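User: What would this chain look like folded?
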Amino acid sequence: MNRPRVIERIYNTHLRKSLNSPMITVLIGPRQSGKTTSVNSFLDGIIHSRRFYLNLDSSFERDRIKSNESYLEEKIEETLGFRLNSLKERFYVFIDEAQKLPLIFETIKILYDRYSGYLKFIISGSSSLELLDKTAETLAGRVQVLRIYPFSMSEASVYEEIGGFECAETFYKGVFSGSLNQGRLSRLIREFKPKGKKKIQLINKLITRSLFPPTFSKVDEYAIPRWLIDYIDTYIERDMRSIKDIGNIEGYRRVVAQLSSRVGSLLDYNQLGNDAGVNQITTKKYVTIWQESLIGFLLSPFFLNISTRIKKSKKVYFFDNALIWALSGFKDINLIEASGGAGHYFENLVIADFIKWGINLEMPPSFYFWQKSPVSEIDLVISTKGMAIPVEIKYSTAWDKKYMHAIDIFKEKHGGKGLKVPFSLVVYRGDFFVPRKDVFCIPVWVLC
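Assistant: Here's the prediction, encoded as structure tokens.
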């Protein structure tokens, strides 16, 4: 375990912009993903008389607000030392676990509408589903939502003091803008290759290692499995039980466990429900709750026709590989590799990383997969700025020309329909290679 410390996060630029905007900032993300730490690191630079922190995880604070509807306003004025109607400078109010006291949202609305020029509200909570419900009900049109996830691979690299963000940031900017080219990639590889070996060693660990920040700062390596078990129990028993329409909590637990066994595979609701012992309607409801809690996500198929895209089956992924590992019974990596599962773990790690980098951009790209047949499939299609970028993800350390097959089929099918495909990527564990001027084989350490 490393000495606990706060590192820069990949979304901090977007967070700072949001914290300096007049709108209410709402931070959502799974429990222990770093929401509170990020905001506190920002507020540490604000003098005490210009900030107030309220944690509604405290029953004491909840009771105070219930018994006095003016409690929040009075506490702000007490911090300021004068009345709010005399406020002439920005004042920051951070309310954590806001979803635990629904009436606070009406208070926030009143104060925001009255003092929005100077009062800046930041709302966070461990139950993203409840938090979004409450803000949609009461604060519609007043909020800006930021999604906070477990570490990206490059954040893990920063924490382990292996490297910084420069390599991954340059790569992702080039991908999401569609401007990546061979010259830029060659320079990137030359500059950062000396750290490539250490990064590969880290990535090999991340196939099953947790990316939740506390597992780097507060938990010894040997204790991570126990931490994950407790995390899953807390997520299901504490956060999900509070969702009013969750119904059978054990049924939900079984659905989540079954989802973990389907990573990288098409989701069949009938089969999922049968295996979990839950009817199809309830299964669909549970999958929706699972997505909205930001533990995992479904990747839609890529079609130019949006209505076709909506109807087709989606693929299952999680935002942290270790949750898959824990839910599957902490299988040894050698057993995972022997069973052919390592490719799915690797694919999940890479796709989640692309999304973590892209989700909070000013104009976030959209992410899909594409499948014409079982042998003509693209793991990830990035739709950005009117372009589509196919990404093949391979656990292999060696190049194989068959990796080009699905890419060529994708381009052939869409090229004549006016869709621009500026380049294609193959992300794998091998060396940088350019088999053709429009196809770049990327060593996975570039993402780290």
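The mean pLDDT is 92. If you want, I can go into more detail on any region.
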